[in-house]
From TrEMBL:
The keyword Ubl conjugation does not apply. The keyword Calcium does not apply. It is a peripheral membrane protein. This is ABC transporter ATP-binding protein. It comes from Paenalcaligenes hermetiae. Keywords: ATP-binding, Cell membrane, Membrane, Nucleotide-binding, Transport. It comes from the Bacteria. One of its GO terms (molecular function) is ATP binding. InterPro entries: AAA+_ATPase (IPR003593), ABC_ATPase_HisP-typ (IPR030679), ABC_transporter-like_ATP-bd (IPR003439), ABC_transporter-like_CS (IPR017871), MetN_ABC_transporter-like (IPR050086), P-loop_NTPase (IPR027417). It is found in: Cell membrane. Belongs to the ABC transporter superfamily. Residues 12-257 form the ABC transporter domain. The lineage of its organism: Bacteria, Pseudomonadati, Pseudomonadota, Betaproteobacteria, Burkholderiales.
Length: 261
């Protein structure tokens, strides 16, 4: 993962990302890459910068420095005169974002739209796909996450686990090359965690490239083939899940994993 490899199969490359909020440096130079079909888990204590990293990848937060490569496309940011950071080119930003599917901790569904409307919105607005075709594909994806029967329901009529499965279907509807998950189960009641993890596991088995920020250590270990431990805005340790979880090298990772032992 950290070794340069054949760029033809490299799905995403994150290079030297820095981000501060005011005086607070949150990301201090993060780099990694994932090949097509890789599942990369990111673990680390609360506040270590995991969400900021995912947000920098799709420029929901514009990094102060660094590059994101998605296939042949590159996102860079530059400073405006007032010091605020902007992404280089709005058209490219939209194009790259469409290739990244993001699933948030709190689902972020549009509450005034039905499940189906939530799923077809992106394909229609961004990809200019005809409504009938977008709806057909959306129903296929809703079926895949076990929710075709909820197509006409509103998010408030669904459980948290169901809402999160809709959010996954919505991200998949854009046919993203890389799926980004930010603690997709941490806002859920325990009995709903399994249904969401099952969907994510299925995507992993289908060979989807995914970056998964999670506190579900056992799950991370089972589904991912690479793992990163973040500490204080840096990648403290990286390797296979077996190496990280069974043979942590850094004292900080050992301490982080201690409560699980
Ligand atoms: P994690 O997801 O690992 O818990 P975050 O990326 O959410 O960590 O946050 C890392 C640090 O950045 C925290 O100290 C947090 O308070 C700070 N932070 C995150 N977003 C912002 C923001 N928009 N403005 C100011 N500080 C922020
Ligand atoms: Mg977070």
């Amino acid at each position: 993962m950290t070794v340069p490899t054949d760029s033809a199969t490299c799905a995403i490359q994150v290079h030297n990302i820095h981000k501060s909020f005011g005086d607070l440096p949150v990301l201090k130079g993060i780099s990694f890459q994932a090949q097509q079909g890789d599942v990369l888990s990111i673990i680390g204590a609360s506040g270590s910068g995991k969400s900021t990293l995912l947000r920098c990848i799709n420029h929901l937060v514009v990094p102060d420095q660094g590059e994101i490569h998605i296939g042949q496309d590159v996102l860079r940011s530059h400073a405006k005169r007032d010091g605020t950071m902007v992404s280089s080119d709005p058209k490219r930003l939209e194009k790259v974002r469409a290739r990244l599917g993001m699933v948030f901790q709190n689902f972020n569904l549009w509450s005034h739209r039905t499940v189906l409307q939530n799923v077809i919105e992106g394909p229609i607005q961004v990809k200019k796909i005809a409504k009938a075709q977008a709806s057909e594909y959306a129903l296929h994806l809703l079926d895949k996450v076990g929710l075709a029967h909820k197509a006409t329901a509103y998010p408030s009529e669904l459980s948290g686990g169901q809402q999160q499965r809709v959010a996954i279907a919505r991200a998949l509807a854009m046919d993203p090359e890389v799926m980004l998950f930010d603690e997709p189960t941490s806002a859920l009641d325990p009995e709903m965690v399994g249904e969401v993890l099952r969907v994510i596991r299925q995507l992993a088995e289908e060979g989807r490239t995914m970056i998964l920020v999670t506190h579900e250590m056992q799950f991370a270990r089972e589904v991912s083939n690479h793992a990163i431990f973040m500490h204080n805005g840096l990648c403290e340790e990286a390797g296979t899940p077996a190496a990280l979880f069974d043979h942590p090298q850094s004292t900080r990772l050992q301490q982080f994993l201690q409560p699980l032992a």
